[in-house]
Amino acid sequence: MVLSIIAVQPALADDVLCDAEQLPDLVSGFFQITTTLGIIGLVVVWQADSLMEMFTASPDQKRSLKQHKRSALKSAVILLVLGPLYTVAASIMGLPLGDCINLVPW
């Protein structure tokens, strides 16, 4: 009896998470909003750094600005790759939200 409850419980949890009225849409929407804000942030940082590079005379400051632009670009790439990677990995590993939540931002 106890073994059947323990064995059935994870399957019930999967159904509850996917059948929750707004949970999958809420998580997908949150991921899309944060991805969009991350891309907008990248554009703002990139443009601001490019503008500051035009008015900077010191080679050290220019190098620092280029490094900042590279780190902003890396962050945006991670943000764009993380959602689809989780979606694929969750489906393969059979994670509860892998089948009912789409984290692909486009």
From TrEMBL:
UniProtKB keywords: Membrane, Transmembrane, Transmembrane helix
Transmembrane segments: 29-51, 72-97
Keyword Membrane applies: yes
Superkingdom as given in the UniProt entry: Archaea
Pfam families: DUF7985
InterPro entries given in the database record: DUF7985 (IPR058291)
Record protein name field: Uncharacterized protein
